[in-house]
Amino acid sequence: MKKILLFSTIALFVLSNTPLATKTYAQSRDHILKVYNWADYLDLSLIDEFETWYKEQTGEDVKVRYSTFDINENMLTQIEVGHEDYDVVCPSEYIIERMLKRGLLQKIDTTDFARTHTPNWLGNVAPFVADKFQQMAPNDDDKFNLENPSLRVSDYAVGYMSGTTGFLYNTDFVEPEEVESWTALWNEKFQQKIYVKDAFRDVYSVLIQLARQDDILSGKTTRDHEASNLSDENIQAVEDILIKARPQIAGWEADFGKERMTQGKAWINLTWSGDAAWAIDEAAEVGCNLEYVVPKEGTNCWFDGWVIPIYAKNVKAASYWINFLCQSDVAIRNMDETGYVSVIGTPEVLEGMSSEEDYEDTVDASYFFGDITFPSVDEETGDTTWIDSKAAHLNHVLYPNIDVIERSILMHDTADRNEAMLEMWSHVKGNNLNWKMLTFILIVVALILLVLIDKKTRQWRKRRHRQALKLKRKNL
Amino acid sequence: MDKSDYIIQVEHVTKRFDGGKVVLNDVSLNIKRGEFVTLLGPSGCGKTTLLRIIAGFTQPTEGKVLLSGKDITTLPPYQRPVNTVFQRYALFPHLNVYDNVAFGLKLQKVSEDEIDKRVMSALRIVGMNEYEERNVNALSGGQQQRVAIARAIVNRPQVLLLDEPLSALDHKLRVDMQLELKQMHRDLGITFIFVTHDQEEALSMSDTIVVMNDSVIQQIGTPTDIYNEPANPFVADFIGESNILNGIMKRDFVVNFMDKDFPCVDKGFEADAPIDVVIRPEDVVMHKDPKDGQWTGRVTSCIFKGIHYEMLVQTPDGYEIQVQDYTAYPAGTEVGMSVAPENLHVMPCQSLYNAIDATVIDATHVFMLGAAFETKLHTLPKGTHVKVAVDFDKVDLLDDPADGTAEGQIRNILYKGNHYFIDVKCSNGANIQVDTNDVWEDWDMIGISIKPEDIRIIN
Amino acid sequence: MVSKILANRANWVWPYAIVLLVFVVMPLVMIVYYSFQDAEGQWSLHNFHKFFLSTDSLNTLIYSIGIAMITTILCILLGYPAAYFMSKKEYGLPKVMAALFILPMWINVLLRTLATVALFDFAHLPLGEGALIFGMVYNFLPFMVYPIYNTMLKMDGSLIEAAQDLGASPRKVFTEVFFPLSMPGVYSGIVMVFMPTISTFALAELLTMNNVKLFGTLIQENINAGLLGYGAALSLIVLILIGLTSFFDSEE
Amino acid sequence: MKKAFANVYIWVLMLLLYAPILLILVFSFTEAKVLGSWTGFSANLYKNLLSGEAGAALNNAIYNTVLIALVAAAVSTILGTFAAIGIHNMRHGRVRSAITFANNIPMINPDIITGISIFLLFVFLGIGRGLFCVICAHIAFCTPYVVLNVMPQLMKMNPNIYEAALDLGATPMQALRKVIIPELKSGMVSGFILAITLSVDDFAVTLFTKGSGTVETLSTYIYADARKGGLTPELRPLFSIIFIVILVLLVFYNLKTAKDTSKD
After folding, report:
1. Is the CB of A259 less than 8 angstroms away from the CB of D192?
2. What is the per-residue pLDDT across B327-346, written as a single tens digit (0 to 9) for each?
3. Per residue in C149-163, pLDDT tens?
4. How far apart are CA A375 and CA B236, in angstroms?
5. Residues of A in contact with C221 (CB under 8 A)
6. Interface residues on C facing B, Cβ-Cβ cutoff 8 A
7. CATH topology assigned to domain A161-302+364-430
8. Which of A65, A289, A358, B338 has the highest Cβ tally under 10 A?
9. What class is the A32-159+304-338 domain?
10. Do residues A412 and A97 touch, judged by C-beta distance below 8 A?
């Protein structure tokens, strides 16, 4: 007993003295910035830098409480249902759209910037991304009527990272032409060798383009229309594709795909360009050759952006955080760290990311950086190279050629069809019930019942038998 | 007697447990067919082990067990035509009363009707019909007891073994069960071997009583023999109340104890042979007038025992005699007492002194009773095996085992009228007897010390 | 006053009673409450309607039950002899054996599962149903062995002797007495294995690379996706199942 | 013959049971990314375990785990002991059976149900989840086991000693401290230990009650890590250490109990 009391007192003492606790209780809320971001989605050394930078700018202390999620919906649930008071979060575009519709967002507050003479870098975001944001589907009965010109989505959301969905594949086992098309999913050669990202929206939005490619090419319909039209037929079409692909699929990965690929346990991984870029570098180190390709039928060009939920307690710091991340050098560092491509479209980024020896073939990234050419001077050698956004020596995984962008779609919020999608997804994913199993269950149940019945009947028969004998005895 | 009359013959059975502890020491026993035999003795005397050997749960270390002439020593229990009633019944909790009783018969593949007939009759014998459907856990101790008996007798065993079956029942119930068991034995006509530590139980039920102590049989006989002619002080003391006194056999038909001569019916001892005299309290006749009677004394206590009074009488020369009489003599009254010659039970003493095996260590020490004792100077060479004689009253018992030269445990205490006669088991297994006036308890651990001058070495 | 209340020791239960009310009873009420609410927070049977219409959820449930059955049966088949051998002295197995058997039970379940995954990778065996069942058995075997072992240890030896005495050969002793008497242990073993198997989610995820989904996974997915109502409804179904099994258990 | 079979059987089963553990123990001493390829002996995995960002996270996780376990175990031990005494002294009746029934619920319920139900409660009350919520949940599912461990001691205890203490002039509190607690000690200790292990082991409940990512415990940390890459290299030394610790603890515990039993 004494021991236990001792323990508890120690425990409580510790509790009241933990840095964690002091964070929680001692510090007032407006010196805390609660950042909620995807896992592995930030150069963590930036956190301290932001804290010092914020001090410089505003003269106020702030402590960043950084936590991560790996499922959009999970994060949204916590905010919408759990009312968690995150100050700044980084959801995907369709969630941003939903949060807008449901009035879960508040404007990014840039008013202080001028006062603290802090440059506003929010404009560094590539215009093409801003446009994509603005495209988010209008809907009249929403709290936020997005057609209302006075409302710019970019007031509520600032892009962070972007990417495409495609195939990451191991060149030792897979020929490039084998993965030109999404139909690679059906190739028996890859039995149990394909991992698919456990993200039904992305998978849907790319595979629907495979399902409808004839109509799309013949111009009967548009990619974006099909992608955002979650009719039962469309969902069914995608489901059929996946069912057909089932034997090849070895698993549905939340995050472990890259790991399995670098370990050579899988040959193909339907995943995001960012993961791909990261995995390619990782694999190179252990001498495993991976490549990334966007199949011809089309892809989805996705964005994650920073937003400030209405339950946020420290809007000011949140706004500064977003602004901070929009600096070109910060963007580059994040790209190097995470492998994803920042939406910052400044010449500095273009210059920083292009490299002739690493990427001899060029990509047309003018859609992203605008149509610009400028000389770049190498510090050591001092010789000048011309950088041309139309023919830039960039990593095609990160900055796909314009044609890829032309056949890409923007994902829209599909909350109303959420359940239908989930159902389709689990049809494909989790339906392992087969006849073998069913018969087995039936047999077991039957056996159990038999035993029970047998037991009961035996008792009953015995009882009756005894009754009879009792009678006999009485009669004797 | 013709061997075929014996159903169970236990021949020179010795049981030694792994620890080397001897629980049965060369026990031999013949049990007649149809007898009601009781194994009687204090706890730890080995009676239960003997029963388990007969049942087959335990294998004897030496000797063998015969069942109607056939050697069954190695036969597993389930092949022996004997059944046991266990101390705590051991009824199967997953079966109801009926199935518990039918268990054995089912195994013998007896027909349903036959089973039912026999089960019901067995239940009727123990008065448990009507309970057949009951769950055994829902029964009282007595009822469980009856079911256990029914379960055993239903198989018509040649021998029924009962391992203290009544010990768990309260007194009233026990007495009833005793009568019923006796009745059952008569009706069934099979051999009962009954283990108990309760002498009344033994006396009231058995044809033959086997008194056991210290893993050997002390006496075998009918209850009356055992009671009236106890073979030794232990039996006399263990069975019923008794006054046990040291005495000397003057000559045939004359015994001397309490420094007085008494006429008796015993003869054949050599003159002045030391003996123990046993007088049952109810055999002492009391006289109002101290002059009549063979000796006198003052009543020190008088307790009413229902039918009779139990009194303690102090004789002038310091003996305390236990007396039972139908008339009360209040404490303080002077009385005279006499005992009829035929009621004087004379039994020869095993010995007058302790004769102990010892080994010479050096000129002034011998090793005995598991320790080295100092002796008077002697000339025997080292290592010679000798007998050492120590008088009963020359052994000192000490509270703390550590204080004594040797250690021992008190096994048996006899009150010899004016002193206690104590049996001590020493750490090395040897026994010594001690006369003392100190009061000890059974199982006390004590220290033993003997003065050097009291150790007489004899060859 | 206070001391008067304390004097009656029956009252000492109330603090805990309150905790039970708040953190055990209320939450269960919550499950019921949410399971009868649709997305708009209106009372409705929508969730159950959905459950019984969506073949998928039903299949998952049935499939999970199947897996649970296989796991349980394998655990019994493997565990019963083990418990038997360890509880019987004549096999001369050291007492510490039992402890060693239980030991893995104390390692974090995820780590244990990861260990099995590692084993399969190491042996180049495919992850999937096979791995799942192996992992499940691996994880739950101790929970089966332990109760059986205990009942066997506690069993009254005189019952066995009684059976022998009544003419039961060693085989009969086992079938007629020992086995029936050991059943309670088996039942509690089943209870400890069956339901947890149905409702695990992490194990399935790790052992099959998300390929196989158990009922637990389904619940977790829905909760994560913010479909609290449906998640609650599924949980309620598990609770009902538990009720049934424990009812059967008491039947025995 | 039979004996041989029994031994073989048990040992084979043991081998199967420990194969994965041994595998990881061995490969925790090589840096190979992929378990199975041996890139030479090195203890770096152990060295780096608590260093770097991952190390910091792990540190925090361990810290939280210990903190939660201690608080939860201590509280539920005290709570459970009082509860057991209370229940023991209650009249048999509705209230008592109701409480004992409620007491059984967390033991029968699968963790996921316990976790979700408490999660729903906090959602319903609109309280943000976190350390507090986790600790509450852990107390909720630990206490029943404490009660379960203390009850038998109470059964064994002579019902009169408490009265005897009062009769000899002790106040109820003194009687509790000087008479009852000593009687229940062994039960409470084993209850406390059990509570600790349960709390440390727990995963499902914590996952649903920890809310925002700030409160990671060992299990949730492992889960997050496992979702990334199965058994990532840094988990191997962690696993090995945990295994060894448990092994040592269990050995000590058995020795102790063995001594106690031999004593009486």
Report:
1. no
2. 888 888 999 999 999 888 88
3. 999 988 888 899 999
4. 127
5. 422, 426
6. 156, 158-159, 161-169, 172-173, 176-177, 180-181, 183
7. D-Maltodextrin-Binding Protein; domain 2 (3.40.190)
8. A65
9. alpha beta
10. yes
